[in-house]
Amino acid sequence: MEILVGLALLGKITLQWLVDGNSFSERYKITVLASQVDSDLTDFPVYVDLNSMPSAFFNTVRSNGGDIIITESDSVTKVPVELVVIDVVAKMGELHFKGNISSSIDTNFFVYVGNTNLSQPSRTATFGSENVWDSNYRVVQHMQQDPSGSAPQMIDSTSNGFNGTSAGSMTSADLVPGQIADNLDFDGTDDAIEAGDAADIGDNNHTLEFWMKIDSLADQGSPIATQDTSANDFIGFNVFKNAQKLQFITRPASEPTLLLNLITTNNEFTSTIDRFSVVWVKEGFAFADQTMYKNGATVT
């Protein structure tokens, strides 16, 4: 059975498989289509929406996903895996793995399950979750944790350890279904996730990417911001002018009198129902060095 899911082609092969001395009852092929890749990618974190896996996968995998391993097309070379969440009853989950992706030929990987003796490796292990994200990733927050739990609640997936602590009056009810598994619902008053100054990226070029959904078109605010008060630098994203325009602001520490303020010409947020993918790419301090995207399309 072959199932096309986004960029991935999944197929079940019912044999007994042996990988790194461990046996598995099932193997599923993931094919990243070259037609969807602009250029070759090295150590790229591939996202797998487990909601798209067949029922047989959830009937076989351990309830905590401990037996999931992924190899390259040779069925031998294992790759680092981050299993963010899995629910075998609801048949859903979120998984990322590190891979090299070709833009000229389709790239195959294999997902193995069906071994009751295995558990996911530790975060810092060779094939653990932290190694999915290389040094180019400053902080990765899935925001899948209960904000009312013990601090820090939001755990950075990278090895940088930029964990976040919930602020305000956040409760378990603020963990709600989102674009990818669960997300956080902020009240717009005092709810926040605070990571201190640790995640400051200084004057470096960077890409900021996230999903968001707004509750009101009449409000405005700053969903994401980081500031090093000692260096006077600032990076922030705002929902501006009655919550319908995108605004990115940056002030480099090396030039504290320079404030780069980008505001979209058009109203980009026109719905309180839809979720939006937002990306800001900064490649310098001139306006021409900034690119903003909404749902994959450039906005100005």
Structure description:
With 300 residues, the chain is mainly β. The chain has three domains: 2-132, Sandwich (Immunoglobulin-like); 138-199, no CATH class; 201-299, no CATH class. It has one helix and 22 strands. The chain has one helix at residues 55-60; strands at 2-5, 8-13, 17-19, 22-24, 26-32, 41-49, 69-72, 81-87, 92-101, 107-113, 165-167, 175-177, 182-184, 192-194, 206-212, 221-228, 233-240, 245-251, 260-263, 276-282, 290-294, 297-299. Strands 1-2-5-10-7 form a five-stranded antiparallel β-sheet, with no helix packed on it. It has a four-stranded antiparallel β-sheet with strand order 15-20-21-22, with no helix packed on it. The protein starts with a strand and ends with a strand. Mean pLDDT is 85; it is low at 1-9.
List the helices and strands and how they pair.
Layout: E1 2-5, E2 8-13, E3 17-19, E4 22-24, E5 26-32, E6 41-49, H1 55-60, E7 69-72, E8 81-87, E9 92-101, E10 107-113, E11 165-167, E12 175-177, E13 182-184, E14 192-194, E15 206-212, E16 221-228, E17 233-240, E18 245-251, E19 260-263, E20 276-282, E21 290-294, E22 297-299
Antiparallel strand pairs: 1-2, 2-5, 3-4, 5-10, 6-9, 7-10, 8-9, 11-14, 12-13, 15-20, 16-17, 17-18, 18-19, 20-21, 21-22
**Biggest β-sheet: count, sense, barrel?**
5 strands, antiparallel
CATH level-1 class of the largest domain: Mainly Beta
Distance linking N and C termini: 44 Å
Please state roughly what percent of the residues sit in beta strands, choosing from under 5%, 5-15%, 15-25%, 25-35%, 35-45% or over 45%.
35-45%
Strand order of the largest sheet: 1-2-5-10-7
Q: What is the domain total for the residues? A: 3
What string, H for helix and E for strand, traces the elements in order? EEEEEEHEEEEEEEEEEEEEEEE
Output the CATH topology of the largest domain. Answer: Immunoglobulin-like
Q: What is the residue-averaged pLDDT?
A: 85
Counting DSSP E segments of at least 2 residues, the number of strands comes to 22
- Class based on secondary structure composition and strand pairing: mainly beta
Which bin fits the share of residues in helices? under 10%
Radius of gyration: 21 Å
Overall geometry? globular
Spans with pLDDT under 50 lasting ≥5 residues? 1-9
